[in-house]
Amino acid sequence: MGNSIFEFDDKFGVTSDFGDWLQTKEAIAITDARVGVSSIRQGMYNANSEKTGQYENRVALTITVSTTGPVQTVTADYDGLTYSGKPVVDPMTQSVSNTFIVEIDVVVPIPFQKIGIQLGIVATAQNGKIVSRTIETEVNRSGTATSKQVSEKQRCLCKGNLSAKDLDYIVTQLRQLDTNPISKIPLDVRKNRTYIDNDGKVIPSTDRGTRPPEAVRVNLVVVNQPVYDEKAEDKKAFADRLFMFKAKGLNIKNEEANYTTFVNQLDRIFSKYKIDTCLRRIHFLAQAYSETNKFRSTYENVQNTGYFGGDFYQGRGLKQITHDYNYLNYFCYQTQDAEKKNLFKLYMDNRAGFEESVTAFNARTSNQYISLEEMQDVDELASKISTGMYYACDAAGWYWHINGINEYADNDDIIGVSAKVNAPSAKKQKTSEGINGFDNRKKYYELLKIIFDYENCK
Questions:
Q1: pLDDT tens digits, residue range 247-288?
Q2: Could you give the 3-state DSSP secondary structure of residue 148?
Q3: Which of 417, 347, 350, 407 is nearest to 375 (CA)?
Q4: Is 457 exposed, middle or buried (0-12, 13-18, 19+ CB in 10 A)?
Q5: What global pTM score does this model have?
Q6: Which of 60, 209, 286, 380 is an S-S bond match for 445, by CB 3.0 to 4.6 Å?
């Protein structure tokens, strides 16, 4: 393989210069991963420039990735392109030593003097866990590379403010680890369908790409597709994009659907509502990921909801606030003033009973307590909870706070947290019965514990 320009003699389980790729003992993904530029190959590639019509020099960096533990794939991302690695030795023969070596050729331009190259190395273990690291090198005019720096070990996500890069990492990892089963027909070497014969063996298409006569059916298999790779309305992968569903224009505005705006508001509410420990962050983000359809929508967009007050008062924000009385309560919280009447208290003190919505209450009292103009203000704020990042996050933090959910998070009680989010009147229940989407909420919570490296960071 040649000598790596990055030298270290780490032992199993010891953090290397590249950071420890082991996320938890369960993940056994990539431990003591040795990542280095082992050799440089220079050549002329037919890269006809669209602007000048001239060929451009390219140099191929060979990235050698050695891992402890079997992997499914190893890729390198550079300049918007993804390069796949090829095993140096047949993986079946490597299983004895449990060491896996993959080489990736990454094509980069030969600079006039030197340029810094940043590569994102991503490895997927056979158990589906995904780990990634960034390496940086400098390539000079002669086509040789020297080490510039290696990304430092990922800092603890449990402490301090999150950065936009931190949040992007969290969302990316969640969507890559969050998979859904889909049916797929594997292709043969000619990129045509594969089939199953009478003996149950997989066979390729004919030379013409048609179904072979001995085939009894197509080779339909079920595979797990990451949410990260699912296609959005624009036919592009969701990848790490935020809140891209634009139902009725009621989702987060385009100019605010970015990691900088999102993380600034998350950091603000984490401080404001004391969501300030590892468990509190993990539980909050797991519930928010579930409620917002994986950080893709802040508006529920359904009909015939049965919510108090009608369909207008359906779910909005990271928590998906519902029912007219919750919107009224949050409005009063946002506009509280000692000299103003508390509209929510007036409603609660004078309603006909638990089943009377704010809308029905106003109709029965002919707006004696809450005027039409005041309800218009409530509705205006309600709309902002789905379209503005400030209110989408703040309403979720407020709801979390008034329902005392930190207490359940501190006890690492995923059932209790989920019950209070999905059914806030729930007492301290012991089972998940009646909690919508509980299995997914629990899955996201468990994935975030891995992503946050909870056992080592808490």
A1: 677 899 999 999 999 999 999 999 999 999 999 999 999 999
A2: strand
A3: 347
A4: middle
A5: 0.68
A6: 286
